[in-house]
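Batch manifest, entry 17 of 40.
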Amino acid sequence: QVQLVESGGGLVQAGGSLRLSCAGSGRTFSTYVMGWFRQAPGKEREFVAAITRSGSTTYFTDSVRGRFTISRDNAKHTVYLQMNSLKPEDTAVYYCAASFTIPTLGDDYWGQGTQVTVSS
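Output type: structure tokens
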């Protein structure tokens, strides 16, 4: 089992950048694939990005590809989401997730979420 704690959310103007962090407890952090989801007001939760155990492969939803970068530091038990060129449409609560496989990401472990607000 792993506990996840997100940080780094906040208010930023359109075109700006934020870096979200997700710190995981436990010595088995590197066992998990990691990712980020988000949920905007009135919308369903959607997948944003994922990263494999070693960090060698990443995945992004089309709306953020080219603007967001996901990375991880297994020694620090932390995964990051670097968000550049932010748009008001990116406003949402962002959740960190962990699982043993990419297809099951979202089924196992979640953080508490961190609010990202992008003003126009």
